[in-house]
Amino acid sequence: MGNDNRLIVEYGKTKNHYVILSEDVLMKDPNTREWITCVLYRQHKEYNHRGEYVPVPEDEKLTFVREYKDFWSKFTLCLDL
After folding, report:
1. What is the pTM of this model?
2. Parallel, antiparallel or unpaired: strands 53-55 and 17-28
3. CA dihedral in degrees (30, 32, 38, 40; nearest 10)?
4. What does the pLDDT look like over 6-32, one tens digit per residue?
5. Which three-class secondary structure string do you get for the chain?
């Protein structure tokens, strides 16, 4: 499955890159029990100590979910790939 049309973002703290799978996933907040909109994203490349981006092997990629507003406060869109 190719990621050609998917958005790639960078996490500010680590500079690792992730592919956005969906920006409109619903998840039930465990504290409030209300449905919240979340972003589903997957590992793409890791930033190493030499300043290089190394692809994460396909069978080792992890998938994450994060609340929409929190996601966009910590990740930035990669426009110059």
Report:
1. 0.87
2. unpaired
3. 0
4. 899 999 999 999 999 999 999 999 999
5. CCCCCCCEEEECCCCCEEEEEEEEEEEECCCCCCEEEEEEEEEEEEECCCCCEEECCHHHCCEEEEEHHHHHHHEEECCCC
